[in-house]
Specification:
With about 475 residues, this protein is α/β, with parallel strands linked by helices. The chain contains 13 helices and 17 strands. Helix 3 packs parallel to helix 4 and helix 3 runs antiparallel to helix 7. The protein starts with a helix and ends in a 5-residue tail after the last strand.
Length: about 475
Amino acid sequence: MRLIEALEQLKKEHLVSFHMPGHKNGRLLFSDNRDLLAYDITEIPGADHLHDAEGCILETEMALTRFYGSERTRMLVGGSTVGILSAIMGATDRGDLILINRNAHKSVYNAIEMHGLSPVYLYPQMEDYLGIPLGFDASELKEHLDGVKCALFTYPTYEGVCYDLEPMIRMCHEKGIPVIVDEAHGAHLLLHKKGPKSALLIGADVVIQSFHKTMPAMTQTACLHFSEEGILTDHQRDRIDWYLKSLQSSSPSYVLMASIDNMLTIAMNRGVSESERLEQRIEAFHKFVKPLKNVNTDSFPLMDVTKIILSVPKERFQPGVWDGDIISKRLREDYGIQSEYATKTMVLLMASFLNTNEDFDQLEKALSDLDARMDLMLKELQPVVTITHYDRVFKKIASRDTFVVPAHTAVNAALKTVTLHESVGEVSGSYVIPYPPGIPVLVPGERIIEETLALVPEDVTHLKVIIENKD
């Protein structure tokens, strides 16, 4: 089946979207049904230039600047990825030390490899059963800052978990270290009066956001904010701008940029009121799920309200019978509801203010039906709770110095392929990146230890490792 055929087939399914993008199958994307092909132009007179904006594109960027409260906001048409790459490489020199949270997106690691940087890792606390990163112990940050030239933090996480980021930014600034925040999942935060604030409001120097993840905008739309009170030098800002111009297409899509402008109008006119409605509906959804026996919703302090984590209670967990993958599959096949992603223990649902009350009604009916069906089946089975102790694994890895050579050195070394068992003690020559969420569990140049193998996906049976000179 070719791509267009597959897309047409998916379109016919009329799936209820609890996944990216935030426009939820085009709701309000362009409310008057404009002919999008008429917007697919190039830099003709009157259309301005993204990489040297002086007219209409500049006006839209200035409107974004005012709305988000930045010093200057740049539109991106290469997703948050191009913003992260540009911010890291523009704020550092080759060979610098950069502090990152270990659960950073693969684009962060790509920037480190491309720019010849050396990472200093801050390991997150982990939730053992769900296997997701939580917050950080800010007291551990100080011991990691010596020699660091730049810091990057992910906030919120893919699952919507935030943490007390402000004192961490302050500690970095006290050492003269600029802070970049990967806020790809937080473009909507300023619309919510309750809950975590955007990093742009608590002192970060550069904040990158994906519009398409949580807002009514097309895939690949994003932005990079410069803070009003940042400590970047003029040279660093200029280099970030240079990388944005170099890494993005010289023929940026006007359809994507128009999508950003359209999104901004919707957000300005009704974003706050619709977000309040969404908060109330999600609160009602959590109350609905609470009495169910075979599915939970999980939340954490400072969590983004629009992310919904469904999980199987430990006493009901049956791999292959009743687990996160099964819930996600049944929601799709039996009820036409698509989740964002699933693991054995959890399902992630992503809502935006474009989700209707009817979407949640359909989700509640589905979960109620599934709960009743599984209640009968699970009475005949004994619970099977086999979990990876993620927090223990991450603490063990953090306590070992696994760094051997930088990633850019490792990927260019002579490599050989070995089995997982044979890889222990070897130096990794490639990345292992489960996707989603796109967070590496193994990075080139690291010594592979037994504990790391617990994080490797089941379908990975062999690894590429460096052929070391033992002489």
